[in-house]
């Protein structure tokens, strides 16, 4: 059995520590979803055809707290 759980905080399960110690748990944390300004520039300019100056892309990434999904949705809005 495989269980996928998506959460912004650790769920209140007592067994998480046991699963971690047995290496039976794969965790994907916020840093895995972050995007750099350079990566956002490639995403917006090359893949989404949204031409913005580097400074504006940097501001978007900062406002999005480096969250890739937020930058992507901003790109959709700007298309």
Structure write-up:
This protein has helices at about 15-20, 35-45, 55-65, 70-79. The protein is mainly α. The chain is elongated and about 50 Å long. The N and C termini lie far apart (about 40 Å). The model has no long low-confidence stretch (mean pLDDT about 85).
Quick take:
This protein has 4 helices and no strands. It has 79 residues and is mainly alpha-helical. The protein is elongated.
Rg value: 17 Å
Q: Please give the count of helices.
A: 4
Helix-strand category: mainly alpha
Mean pLDDT: 87
Q: Which bin fits the share of residues in helices?
A: 40-55%
**Beta-strand percentage?**
under 5%
Number of strands: 0
Could you state the order of secondary-structure elements as H and E? HHHH
- Given as residue ranges, the uncertain stretches (5+ residues, pLDDT < 50) are none
Major sheet description? none
Between the first and last Cα atoms, what is the distance in angstroms? 41 Å
Global outline: elongated
Secondary structure blueprint with pairings:
Blueprint lengths: L15 H6 L15 H11 L6 H10 L4 H11 L1
Helix pairs in contact: 2-3
Features of the shown structure:
48% helix; mainly alpha; 79 residues; 4 helices
């Amino acid at each position: 059995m495989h269980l996928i759980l998506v959460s912004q905080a650790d769920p209140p399960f007592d067994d998480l520590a046991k699963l971690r110690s047995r290496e039976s748990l794969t965790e994907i944390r916020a840093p895995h979803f972050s995007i750099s300004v350079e990566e956002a520039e490639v995403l917006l300019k090359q893949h989404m055809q949204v031409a913005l100056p580097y400074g504006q892309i940097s501001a978007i990434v900062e406002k999005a707290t480096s969250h890739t999904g937020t930058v992507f949705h901003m790109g959709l809005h700007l298309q």
